[in-house]
Amino acid sequence: MTDAPKRGAPQPPVRESGPVEGVRGNREVPPTNPAAPDEAPAVEESSEDQLGALQAERDELFDRLQRLAAEFDNYRKRSAREQAQQATRANERLVKELLPVLDDLSRALEAASDHEEAKLEEGVRLVHRSLETLLEREGLAEIETDGKFDPHVHEALLTQPSELAEGDVLQVIQKGYSLGDRVLRPARVVVSAGPPEEAQE
Hints:
Number of helices: 3
Strand content: 15-25%
Order of helices and strands: EEHHEEEEEEH
Distance between the termini: 173 Å
């Protein structure tokens, strides 16, 4: 029979059966650490990557914006140029249709100058001058025919011997006109072939 412990005698300490911090079974458990020392650089590196990606996206958007602005500017210039060309072509058609009228008036003036109808001549001359002024305001200019034949603005109807140097314009058969930098109608002319062979000998 086991003796009961005596009252007042000190009792041995009682060990709890639950887990003890630092020990799991027979294995030691490392102490809990909320953040490992090497995690801070990883977070910083991730932030730098995000910043670099945002900067790259910003640069790409800026480049696209610049390209769009350049395309719009080119479109605006092209539209203005096309409108100007359309206006020029419209003027060309109008002026070209009026050229025969100008020719008729010129011939009428030449015929009237041989007669005594001074008033008729003066009237035709006034109409002729008014039409010339109107067309000049639209940019019409008579092509020069003095001097050498220029294939860019002259059309040689024929050549004939002359005391003038070869290639000089002898006679204007029909006046030529330009509108701005475009030739509406070349001047139709007779060109010198140079002195006759007999004269050269």
